[in-house]
TrEMBL record:
Record InterPro entries: HTH-type_LysR_regulators (IPR050950), LysR_HTH_N (IPR000847), LysR_subst-bd (IPR005119), WH-like_DNA-bd_sf (IPR036388), WH_DNA-bd_sf (IPR036390)
Pfam families assigned to the protein according to its UniProt record, in alphabetical order: HTH_1, LysR_substrate
Family: Belongs to the LysR transcriptional regulatory family.
NAD is among the record's keywords: no
The organism's taxonomic lineage, starting at the top: Bacteria, Pseudomonadati, Pseudomonadota, Gammaproteobacteria, Alteromonadales
The protein's name in its UniProt record: Probable transcriptional regulator
Top-level taxon of the source organism: Bacteria
Keywords from the UniProt entry: DNA-binding, Transcription, Transcription regulation
GO MF annotations in UniProt: DNA binding; DNA-binding transcription factor activity
GO cellular component: cytosol
Length: 293
């Protein structure tokens, strides 16, 4: 195989047209330079230089190969430089997947803090439902993700960050906003706006109500908390959501309250794949979270 060092020797000799001068600039001996050129010529199958006692000139084949050799060296130097920049955090792209609730509430401050420290790292955020966050991390579409603790963590590392207690949201004029304590028995009297069937959030709410031998009436389903908030505010029903989205819901005009007897508390945290290493940028971002890892 033609090596990078041999290519460098060839380009230098073509430029200097002198073994003595080229060897000096390459910081090698003349015999070492001569050996490198001969080896290249053997590997390529013919002479690259015509030699005389007074000069060294490129053969037609050598002249044809010179621009190719220069381009290969440029590509090599650019590739090495890019990798060095990645390791030194002078360049890079970090792709993060996050539940919309976390992406809208907690993530911006975390990204801003990291971005101030590492301004040369580009950041891409996929704000998708929890199931797709997990799939993105496992399929290498994202390096890390923010989710509630997955039930199946066989292929994932999960690093807890905080607990989130689910709460009730209502339109501002709803009867349950009277100020008195709200119980599960109170909320089941009203129609619900719920996450789509099959989602993890829906399962947690359904499991909690089944455990309490309660049954709710679903008026409408949606796949995003933003839509659920709009539907609740419009009067379509009430909803049980993570406390993490309270500010988002209040901004839409909804009222949030705790429910006595509702016991849905889940850990929110960071997931990474067990099967592959993280980039330097991802490692730096995780370090900025100060999770004590």
């Amino acid at each position: 195989m033609v090596t990078i060092k041999n290519l460098q020797a060839f380009v230098e000799l073509a430029k200097c047209q002198s073994f003595a001068e080229a060897a000096e600039k390459r910081h090698i001996s003349q015999p070492a330079l001569s050996s490198a050129i001969k080896k290249m010529e053997q590997q390529l199958g013919g002479a690259l230089f015509s030699r005389s006692t007074r000069s060294v000139k490129l053969t037609p084949e050598g002249a044809s190969f010179l621009p190719v050799a220069r381009r290969l060296l440029d590509d090599w130097e650019n590739a090495v430089g890019d990798v060095k920049q990645l390791f030194k955090l002078e360049k890079g792209l970090l792709t993060i997947a996050s539940m919309p609730s976390f992406a809208e509430g907690k993530l911006p401050d975390l990204l801003a803090y990291f971005g101030y420290a590492q301004p040369n790292i580009g950041i891409r955020v996929h704000d998708v439902v929890m199931e797709l966050v997990i799939d993105s991390v496992l399929s290498d579409r994202a390096e890390l993700g923010f989710v509630f603790e997955p039930e199946d963590k066989e292929a994932l590392n999960f690093y807890p960050m905080f607990n989130d207690e689910f709460v009730l949201i209502m339109p501002p004029n709803h009867p349950l906003t009277s100020g008195s304590e709200i119980s599960i028995e109170d909320v089941i009297e009203y129609p619900f706006v719920s996450m789509n069937r099959g989602s993890t959030m829906r399962k947690w709410v359904d499991d909690e109500l089944v455990n309490n031998k309660q049954k709710i009436s679903i008026a409408v389903e949606a796949s995003q908390f933003s839509t659920i908030g709009n539907l609740v505010y419009s009067g379509m029903g009430i909803a049980i959501v993570p406390a993490m989205v309270q500010k988002q819901m209040q901004a839409k005009g909804c009222v949030s309250e705790k429910v006595t007897g509702l016991n849905i508390v889940k850990q929110v945290g960071l997931i990474t794949p067990k099967s592959r290493s993280l980039s330097t940028a991802a490692q730096a971002f995780i370090a900025s979270l100060d999770l004590g890892l």
